[in-house]
């Protein structure tokens, strides 16, 4: 019934022109094929080895998004094909992505990940780190990475007020970066926030890209 769920979610997203990243991590290729047959082309994965295997096996017009924490020594495996990396969270990682993209004669689209949740474990830049990054020569001289927005994960909690505040925080960061560093860059416009449990809230707070896994594919074991 992939079709029905997909249609329902797309009907919620399309009036607001929100992009759906179907998060297929841990799910078998058959489940992705089913979603592909129903028309979905953007899939999100959080592990390098898994996205490489799925890329090799599945249709080449799929746009693969890397949404999980990325180690520098693994960038080379995804650089030939990855469509968007949501999880750029340090200058050192950015530098590596730029290097591997250049080797592949590509420009890789990226989002800057921010730490907006209360949990310690979630990755991302904080305010001062991103300022240092955007003012660095490494950033200014990089030709093979295109930064088009921001990404964040809210705290895993039932407290909607908390989650809403965290999404507002990310939207605020986006607006600040846009006016201070990306004013002339019309394609700096993406706010990747919202998962199965909180994407409606995220859209209310200005999300342009939601990353939905379990609601589409069923719970992960
Ligand atoms: C797993 C994951 C998602 C999707 O989570 P669901 O709750 O299954 O929708 C979204 N974003 C990131 C970064 C994830 O790791």
Descriptive account of the structure:
The protein has helices at 2-13, 29-37, 48-57, 75-78, 91-103, 127-134, 137-141, 160-181, 199-204, 214-217, and strands at residues 19-23, 42-45, 63-66, 84-88, 108-114, 145-152, 190-192, 209-212. The protein is globular and about 50 Å long. The longest helix has 22 residues, at 160-181. With 221 residues, it is of the alpha/beta class. Pyridoxal-5'-phosphate is lined by residues 23, 25, 46, 67-68, 153, 195-197, 211-215.
Q: Strand share of the residues? A: 15-25%
Multimeric status of the protein: single chain
Structural class: alpha/beta
List how many beta strands DSSP finds.
8
What is the count of DSSP helices, taking H or I runs of 4+ residues?
10
Order of helices and strands: HEHEHEHEHEHHEHEHEH
Q: Descriptors for this entry?
A:
binds pyridoxal-5'-phosphate, 8 strands, alpha/beta, 10 helices
Topology, element by element:
Blueprint: H1 2-13, E1 19-23, H2 29-37, E2 42-45, H3 48-57, E3 63-66, H4 75-78, E4 84-88, H5 91-103, E5 108-114, H6 127-134, H7 137-141, E6 145-152, H8 160-181, E7 190-192, H9 199-204, E8 209-212, H10 214-217
Parallel strand pairs: 1-2, 1-8, 2-3, 3-4, 4-5, 5-6, 6-7
Short description, anyone?
This protein is of the alpha/beta class and 221 residues long. It is built from ten helices and eight strands.
């Amino acid at each position: 019934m992939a079709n029905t769920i997909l249609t329902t979610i797309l009907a919620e997203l399309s009036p607001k022109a929100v992009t759906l990243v179907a998060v297929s991590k841990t799910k078998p290729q058959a489940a992705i094929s089913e979603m592909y047959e129903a028309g979905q082309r953007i899939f999100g994965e959080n592990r390098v080895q898994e996205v490489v295997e799925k890329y090799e096996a599945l249709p080449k017009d799929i746009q693969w998004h890397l949404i999980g924490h990325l180690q520098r020594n693994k960038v080379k495996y995804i650089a030939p094909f990855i469509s968007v990396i949501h999880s750029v969270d340090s200058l050192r990682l950015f530098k590596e992505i730029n290097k591997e993209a250049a080797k592949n004669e590509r420009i890789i689209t990226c989002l800057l990940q921010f730490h907006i949740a209360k949990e310690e474990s979630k990755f991302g830049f904080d305010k001062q780190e991103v300022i240092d990054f955007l003012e660095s020569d490494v950033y200014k001289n990089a030709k093979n990475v295109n930064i088009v927005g921001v990404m964040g994960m809210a705290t895993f909690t039932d407290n909607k007020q908390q989650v809403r505040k965290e999404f507002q925080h990310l939207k605020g960061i986006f607006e600040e970066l846009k006016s201070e560093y990306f004013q002339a860059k019309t394609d700096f416009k993406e706010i990747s926030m919202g998962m199965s449990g909180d994407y409606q809230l995220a859209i209310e707070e200005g999300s342009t890209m939601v990353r939905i896994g379990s609601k589409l594919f069923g719970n992960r074991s």
